[in-house]
Design goal:
Length: about 300
Protein backbone atom coordinates (compact mmCIF):
# COMPACT_ATOMS: atom_id res chain seq x y z
CA UNK A 1 0.00 0.00 0.00
CA UNK A 2 1.37 3.41 -1.01
CA UNK A 3 2.38 5.78 1.74
CA UNK A 4 0.05 8.77 1.99
CA UNK A 5 1.61 12.05 0.94
CA UNK A 6 0.42 15.01 2.99
CA UNK A 7 -0.33 18.33 1.29
CA UNK A 8 2.80 20.50 0.86
CA UNK A 9 4.77 18.16 3.13
CA UNK A 10 8.55 17.60 2.86
CA UNK A 11 7.84 14.25 1.20
CA UNK A 12 5.59 15.98 -1.34
CA UNK A 13 8.37 18.44 -2.21
CA UNK A 14 10.96 15.65 -2.42
CA UNK A 15 8.77 13.80 -4.92
CA UNK A 16 8.18 17.02 -6.86
CA UNK A 17 11.94 17.70 -7.07
CA UNK A 18 12.54 14.22 -8.61
CA UNK A 19 16.01 13.63 -7.08
CA UNK A 20 16.65 10.66 -9.38
CA UNK A 21 16.93 13.06 -12.32
CA UNK A 22 19.88 14.87 -10.77
CA UNK A 23 22.28 12.40 -12.36
CA UNK A 24 21.43 14.03 -15.69
CA UNK A 25 22.59 17.36 -14.30
CA UNK A 26 25.73 15.89 -12.74
CA UNK A 27 27.10 14.01 -15.75
CA UNK A 28 28.07 16.94 -18.05
CA UNK A 29 29.63 18.94 -15.21
CA UNK A 30 31.51 15.88 -13.95
CA UNK A 31 32.90 15.13 -17.41
CA UNK A 32 33.94 18.75 -18.02
CA UNK A 33 35.72 18.96 -14.66
CA UNK A 34 37.62 15.73 -15.30
CA UNK A 35 38.76 17.05 -18.69
CA UNK A 36 39.83 20.35 -17.13
CA UNK A 37 41.74 18.57 -14.35
CA UNK A 38 43.51 16.44 -16.93
CA UNK A 39 44.41 19.37 -19.20
CA UNK A 40 45.57 21.51 -16.27
CA UNK A 41 47.41 18.57 -14.68
CA UNK A 42 45.70 19.60 -11.45
CA UNK A 43 47.58 22.91 -11.45
CA UNK A 44 45.32 25.95 -11.36
CA UNK A 45 42.13 23.93 -10.97
CA UNK A 46 39.50 26.20 -9.37
CA UNK A 47 37.46 24.47 -6.67
CA UNK A 48 34.85 27.18 -6.03
CA UNK A 49 33.60 27.54 -9.62
CA UNK A 50 33.55 23.75 -9.87
CA UNK A 51 31.22 23.58 -6.86
CA UNK A 52 29.11 26.48 -8.16
CA UNK A 53 28.71 24.82 -11.57
CA UNK A 54 27.51 21.62 -9.94
CA UNK A 55 25.11 23.46 -7.63
CA UNK A 56 23.74 25.54 -10.51
CA UNK A 57 23.15 22.39 -12.55
CA UNK A 58 21.34 20.68 -9.65
CA UNK A 59 19.15 23.67 -8.83
CA UNK A 60 18.24 24.26 -12.48
CA UNK A 61 17.30 20.58 -12.83
CA UNK A 62 14.99 20.84 -9.83
CA UNK A 63 13.59 24.10 -11.20
CA UNK A 64 12.89 22.44 -14.56
CA UNK A 65 11.14 19.57 -12.78
CA UNK A 66 8.89 21.94 -10.84
CA UNK A 67 8.10 23.97 -13.95
CA UNK A 68 7.29 20.76 -15.81
CA UNK A 69 5.07 19.53 -12.97
CA UNK A 70 3.13 22.81 -12.81
CA UNK A 71 2.62 23.56 -16.50
CA UNK A 72 1.95 20.00 -17.65
CA UNK A 73 -0.82 19.84 -15.05
CA UNK A 74 -2.21 23.18 -16.17
CA UNK A 75 -2.16 22.03 -19.80
CA UNK A 76 -3.87 18.73 -18.93
CA UNK A 77 -0.95 16.52 -20.00
CA UNK A 78 -0.57 14.98 -16.53
CA UNK A 79 -3.96 13.32 -16.18
CA UNK A 80 -5.19 9.96 -14.92
CA UNK A 81 -4.12 8.22 -18.15
CA UNK A 82 -0.44 9.12 -17.75
CA UNK A 83 1.80 6.08 -17.29
CA UNK A 84 4.82 7.71 -15.72
CA UNK A 85 5.59 8.39 -12.05
CA UNK A 86 2.96 10.46 -10.28
CA UNK A 87 3.35 14.22 -10.30
CA UNK A 88 2.85 16.52 -7.33
CA UNK A 89 0.33 18.98 -8.79
CA UNK A 90 -1.70 16.31 -10.56
CA UNK A 91 -1.93 14.24 -7.36
CA UNK A 92 -2.79 17.23 -5.19
CA UNK A 93 0.36 16.78 -3.09
CA UNK A 94 1.36 20.40 -3.71
CA UNK A 95 -1.01 23.33 -4.25
CA UNK A 96 -0.62 25.42 -7.39
CA UNK A 97 0.13 28.57 -5.40
CA UNK A 98 2.84 26.79 -3.41
CA UNK A 99 4.34 25.41 -6.63
CA UNK A 100 4.48 28.89 -8.17
CA UNK A 101 6.34 30.17 -5.10
CA UNK A 102 8.73 27.20 -5.22
CA UNK A 103 9.48 27.85 -8.90
CA UNK A 104 10.24 31.49 -8.12
CA UNK A 105 12.47 30.44 -5.21
CA UNK A 106 14.47 27.84 -7.14
CA UNK A 107 14.89 30.19 -10.10
CA UNK A 108 16.20 32.91 -7.76
CA UNK A 109 18.49 30.39 -6.04
CA UNK A 110 19.97 29.30 -9.37
CA UNK A 111 20.65 32.93 -10.28
CA UNK A 112 22.25 33.58 -6.89
CA UNK A 113 24.56 30.59 -7.31
CA UNK A 114 25.40 31.48 -10.91
CA UNK A 115 26.20 35.19 -10.48
CA UNK A 116 29.63 34.66 -8.79
CA UNK A 117 30.76 32.77 -11.90
CA UNK A 118 31.02 36.16 -13.61
CA UNK A 119 34.24 36.66 -11.61
CA UNK A 120 35.76 33.65 -13.38
CA UNK A 121 34.19 33.65 -16.84
CA UNK A 122 33.11 37.25 -17.44
CA UNK A 123 29.68 38.58 -18.36
CA UNK A 124 29.17 35.70 -20.80
CA UNK A 125 28.15 33.71 -17.74
CA UNK A 126 25.14 36.01 -17.25
CA UNK A 127 24.00 35.39 -20.83
CA UNK A 128 24.37 31.64 -20.37
CA UNK A 129 22.46 31.74 -17.09
CA UNK A 130 19.62 33.77 -18.62
CA UNK A 131 19.35 31.32 -21.51
CA UNK A 132 19.21 28.40 -19.08
CA UNK A 133 16.35 30.01 -17.15
CA UNK A 134 14.41 31.11 -20.24
CA UNK A 135 14.59 27.74 -21.96
CA UNK A 136 13.78 25.97 -18.69
CA UNK A 137 10.33 27.57 -19.00
CA UNK A 138 10.06 27.42 -22.80
CA UNK A 139 10.75 23.68 -22.82
CA UNK A 140 7.63 22.71 -20.89
CA UNK A 141 5.36 25.53 -22.01
CA UNK A 142 6.05 25.40 -25.75
CA UNK A 143 9.07 23.63 -27.21
CA UNK A 144 8.41 20.10 -25.92
CA UNK A 145 5.01 20.27 -27.63
CA UNK A 146 6.75 21.03 -30.93
CA UNK A 147 9.14 18.08 -30.79
CA UNK A 148 12.15 20.25 -29.92
CA UNK A 149 12.85 18.80 -26.48
CA UNK A 150 15.67 16.62 -27.77
CA UNK A 151 17.43 19.65 -29.28
CA UNK A 152 17.26 21.43 -25.94
CA UNK A 153 18.68 18.39 -24.15
CA UNK A 154 21.62 18.34 -26.56
CA UNK A 155 22.21 22.03 -25.89
CA UNK A 156 21.51 22.38 -22.17
CA UNK A 157 22.60 18.94 -20.94
CA UNK A 158 25.54 18.71 -23.31
CA UNK A 159 27.09 21.62 -25.17
CA UNK A 160 26.30 24.42 -22.67
CA UNK A 161 27.21 22.78 -19.32
CA UNK A 162 30.27 20.93 -20.60
CA UNK A 163 31.57 23.90 -22.57
CA UNK A 164 30.87 26.50 -19.87
CA UNK A 165 32.27 24.40 -17.01
CA UNK A 166 35.46 23.62 -18.94
CA UNK A 167 35.85 27.26 -20.03
CA UNK A 168 35.54 28.49 -16.44
CA UNK A 169 38.48 26.27 -15.49
CA UNK A 170 40.75 26.78 -18.50
CA UNK A 171 39.59 29.87 -20.37
CA UNK A 172 39.42 28.00 -23.66
CA UNK A 173 37.43 25.52 -25.75
CA UNK A 174 38.76 22.60 -27.79
CA UNK A 175 37.41 20.16 -30.36
CA UNK A 176 37.77 17.36 -27.82
CA UNK A 177 35.67 19.24 -25.28
CA UNK A 178 33.00 20.05 -27.88
CA UNK A 179 32.93 16.37 -28.87
CA UNK A 180 32.47 15.34 -25.24
CA UNK A 181 29.66 17.89 -24.86
CA UNK A 182 27.78 16.43 -27.83
CA UNK A 183 28.34 12.89 -26.55
CA UNK A 184 26.96 13.82 -23.12
CA UNK A 185 23.95 15.44 -24.72
CA UNK A 186 23.23 12.32 -26.77
CA UNK A 187 23.52 10.02 -23.76
CA UNK A 188 21.27 12.19 -21.58
CA UNK A 189 18.75 12.50 -24.41
CA UNK A 190 18.17 8.75 -24.13
CA UNK A 191 16.37 9.51 -20.86
CA UNK A 192 13.97 11.86 -22.64
CA UNK A 193 13.50 9.40 -25.50
CA UNK A 194 12.48 6.49 -23.28
CA UNK A 195 10.25 8.81 -21.24
CA UNK A 196 8.47 10.03 -24.36
CA UNK A 197 8.35 6.49 -25.79
CA UNK A 198 6.41 5.41 -22.70
CA UNK A 199 4.06 8.42 -22.89
CA UNK A 200 3.61 8.47 -26.67
CA UNK A 201 -0.09 7.55 -26.71
CA UNK A 202 -1.01 10.03 -24.01
CA UNK A 203 1.14 12.74 -25.59
CA UNK A 204 -0.52 12.19 -28.96
CA UNK A 205 -3.94 12.40 -27.36
CA UNK A 206 -3.15 15.67 -25.58
CA UNK A 207 -1.44 17.30 -28.57
CA UNK A 208 2.12 17.06 -27.25
CA UNK A 209 4.01 16.33 -30.47
CA UNK A 210 7.31 15.05 -29.12
CA UNK A 211 9.93 13.62 -31.45
CA UNK A 212 8.69 10.13 -30.54
CA UNK A 213 5.13 11.07 -31.51
CA UNK A 214 6.39 12.51 -34.79
CA UNK A 215 8.60 9.60 -35.89
CA UNK A 216 6.64 6.73 -34.33
CA UNK A 217 7.47 3.83 -32.03
CA UNK A 218 9.46 1.71 -34.51
CA UNK A 219 11.78 4.53 -35.50
CA UNK A 220 12.24 5.41 -31.83
CA UNK A 221 13.30 1.83 -31.10
CA UNK A 222 16.11 2.35 -33.63
CA UNK A 223 16.93 5.85 -32.46
CA UNK A 224 17.38 4.86 -28.81
CA UNK A 225 20.34 2.47 -29.30
CA UNK A 226 21.78 4.73 -32.01
CA UNK A 227 22.17 7.59 -29.52
CA UNK A 228 24.36 5.49 -27.22
CA UNK A 229 26.34 4.01 -30.11
CA UNK A 230 27.02 7.45 -31.60
CA UNK A 231 28.12 8.84 -28.24
CA UNK A 232 30.66 6.04 -27.86
CA UNK A 233 31.90 6.32 -31.45
CA UNK A 234 32.62 9.99 -30.80
CA UNK A 235 35.17 8.66 -28.33
CA UNK A 236 37.47 8.07 -31.29
CA UNK A 237 38.18 11.80 -31.09
CA UNK A 238 39.42 11.36 -27.49
CA UNK A 239 41.68 8.54 -28.66
CA UNK A 240 43.07 10.82 -31.36
CA UNK A 241 43.92 13.32 -28.60
CA UNK A 242 45.73 10.59 -26.67
CA UNK A 243 42.96 9.68 -24.22
CA UNK A 244 42.64 5.98 -24.95
CA UNK A 245 40.82 5.15 -21.70
CA UNK A 246 38.20 7.82 -22.34
CA UNK A 247 37.42 5.95 -25.54
CA UNK A 248 37.59 2.42 -24.11
CA UNK A 249 35.82 2.61 -20.71
CA UNK A 250 32.44 3.86 -22.06
CA UNK A 251 32.18 0.57 -23.98
CA UNK A 252 30.96 -0.88 -20.65
CA UNK A 253 28.15 1.68 -20.71
CA UNK A 254 27.34 0.78 -24.32
CA UNK A 255 26.85 -2.89 -23.46
CA UNK A 256 24.39 -1.90 -20.70
CA UNK A 257 22.65 0.56 -23.01
CA UNK A 258 22.09 -2.05 -25.71
CA UNK A 259 20.63 -4.49 -23.17
CA UNK A 260 18.27 -1.77 -21.93
CA UNK A 261 17.36 -0.98 -25.54
CA UNK A 262 16.28 -4.57 -26.18
CA UNK A 263 14.29 -4.65 -22.95
CA UNK A 264 12.53 -1.41 -23.91
CA UNK A 265 11.60 -2.83 -27.30
CA UNK A 266 10.35 -6.07 -25.75
CA UNK A 267 8.13 -4.30 -23.20
CA UNK A 268 6.85 -1.88 -25.81
CA UNK A 269 4.06 -0.25 -23.82
CA UNK A 270 2.72 0.23 -20.33
CA UNK A 271 3.93 0.80 -16.79
CA UNK A 272 6.80 -1.66 -17.28
CA UNK A 273 8.69 1.07 -19.13
CA UNK A 274 9.14 2.91 -15.83
CA UNK A 275 11.71 0.23 -14.95
CA UNK A 276 13.47 0.95 -18.22
CA UNK A 277 13.55 4.61 -17.27
CA UNK A 278 15.32 3.67 -14.03
CA UNK A 279 17.77 1.40 -15.84
CA UNK A 280 18.56 4.13 -18.33
CA UNK A 281 19.20 6.69 -15.58
CA UNK A 282 21.64 4.22 -14.02
CA UNK A 283 23.36 3.63 -17.39
CA UNK A 284 23.63 7.34 -18.00
CA UNK A 285 25.35 7.94 -14.67
CA UNK A 286 27.71 5.01 -15.28
CA UNK A 287 28.64 6.61 -18.61
CA UNK A 288 29.52 9.87 -16.86
CA UNK A 289 31.64 8.10 -14.26
CA UNK A 290 33.47 5.95 -16.81
CA UNK A 291 34.17 8.82 -19.19
CA UNK A 292 35.40 10.99 -16.32
CA UNK A 293 37.70 8.24 -15.06
CA UNK A 294 38.94 7.75 -18.63
CA UNK A 295 40.06 11.37 -18.86
CA UNK A 296 41.61 11.31 -15.40
CA UNK A 297 43.61 8.22 -16.35
CA UNK A 298 44.80 10.09 -19.42
Amino acid sequence: MEEEVRLNSPRAWLLAARPKTLSGAAVPVMVALSMAWCDLSGTGFKVLPAILCLLFAFIMQIDANLVNDYFDFRKGTDDEQRLGPKRACAQGWVTLSAMRKAIALTTAAACAVGIPLVLYGGWWMVAIGVLCVVFCFLYTTHLSYLGLGDVLVLLFFGIVPVGATYFLQTGRMTLEVFTASVACGLVIDTLLVVNNYRDRDNDRRTGKNTLVVRIGARATERLFPALGITACLLGLVYWAYGHFWAFLLPVVYLSLHLVTSERMKTIGKGFGLNKILGENARNMFIYGILLSIGFLLG
